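So, is this right?
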Amino acid sequence: MQIGELTEQVERISQGYASRFGIDRDANWFVLKLQEEMGELTQAHLMLSGQARTKGRTGDEIGELFRSEVADVLCHVLLLAHHHDIDVIEEVRRKWLVWADGTGLPQ
């Protein structure tokens, strides 16, 4: 699957969710929802690393939770980028891949 196709699917799902629950997906919502998901990822990471209560979850359940939260964060980054008409691939090329040849270091 290409990132554009993934973004389109995630966008459709998010639109449906917002419609069902009466959510106005404005610029603030996209940033705040990403922040919420980062908080959940952080909590799962702390559980995984033994630095937070497990809330009765097994190691396998915590691993699944962590992977799930990584997916949530990725999807919300894609939604935020889509909302602001950002070409994520182009920005990764511009920001990261210019260093791929190993001749320089990021500043």
